[in-house]
Amino acid sequence: MRQQILVDMDGVLADVYAQLIIFEHRDSGIKLNIENMYGKTELEAFPSFEKHVRSKGFFRTAPLIPGSIEGLKYLNEKYNVLIVSSATEFPQSLNEKEEWLSEHFPFITWEQMIFCGRKDSIRGNIMIDDHPKNLSTFDGERYLFAQPHNMCVPDRNYHRVSGWQDIIRLL
Q: Which residues form the active site (predicted)?
């Protein structure tokens, strides 16, 4: 039986930082610099974070993380892949996330998509996530996908990956 791998959506497949920068510039004219966000939470880094993540179309139009299509295809051939997203925090995102995944990753079936509130009840052998809080309760092998909000988090109890090439190389 193949190992089960849990892959987060936002910050691992979908580039929410790029999307937040686009929305902030569109709405306020402010062009944010990603380097100034290192070590800050999304709430600290983006003045209109709550407004934007609750906006219609935010999740549906998010850009892809570079290499995510090829990387997820690779994992899907080797592992039992589940996409696990804390989508119920933003209820309007449920349809948008399903449509986004179906468009960009047509090889991922609806049965492989788990939209939840908390990830601690989902079981697997490996988890890839950009939030240490999700990895901290996971019993399997942990991979922290580098994003500005986790740049100052010490590399304990997980492997830090800087992108999809790292994931392919390690897994």
A: 8 (nucleophile), 10 (proton donor)
